Every structure is written in structure tokens, then in C-alpha cells.
Amino acid sequence: MKNDDFPITKKYLIFDRYVTLDADFIVKNKRKKEDIGTIGYFKKWKKYVFYPYSDTYFCSICLTEIKEFMEELNEKIKNNLQKIGLI
């Protein structure tokens, strides 16, 4: 994924760049454009993880969209780490 690819809109969610110390992406619901959580890289696990905001609820479709987005990110980071010999 390139910066030009964002925001990414799915059936219920929007994923957009959100670069802070703790997060790389912001997750919003598509209907009201409300922030519902962030996705950031968890160095200890060498994976991207989802940090939901408090008082947020998710149906199985939303969870699947989050899971698929993170799987794509994690596959990309895994390939990059393999290229430089860290795994």
C-alpha cells in the first residue's frame, strides 16, 4: 500500500493514514465518519494490532474488515523484514 492508496473504504469501515507515536492508521465507521480505533505496529510481536476506542462495538463484518486490513499490513511488513534478514 502506498500513501496514494488512502483512505481505503470498505463496506462499513474507512482506513486512513494517522501517523503518531502509537498508531499508523485510524479506523472510522463509514456511516458517521466517527473514529473507532487505531492500528499500530506492535514491535514485540512484529505485527500490526488494532486498538479499539472505549465504548465501541463491532459486528462480525467489521471485525473481518479490520482483520483483513491488518493481515495485508502484516504480510507486507513480514516480507520487508525477510528482505533485510531480520526474520
Give a brief description.
The chain has 87 residues and is an alpha+beta fold. It has one helix at residues 60-83; strands spanning 8-9, 13-17, 25-29, 35-42, 47-52.
Describe this structure in words.
By secondary structure, the protein is of the alpha+beta class. Helices cover 28% and strands 30% of the residues. It is built from 1 helix and 5 strands. The longest helix has 24 residues, at 60-83. The protein is globular. The mean pLDDT is 89.
Helix and strand topology:
Layout (H helix, E strand, L loop, with lengths): L7 E2 L3 E5 L7 E5 L5 E8 L4 E6 L7 H24 L4
Antiparallel strand pairs: 1-2, 2-3, 3-4, 4-5
Number of helices: 1
Query: Using DSSP, what is the number of strands?
Result: 5
The low-confidence runs, each spanning 5 or more residues with pLDDT under 50, are none
DSSP strand (E) fraction?
25-35%
* Largest sheet entry: 5 strands, antiparallel
H and E string: EEEEEH
**Radius of gyration over alpha carbons?**
13 Å
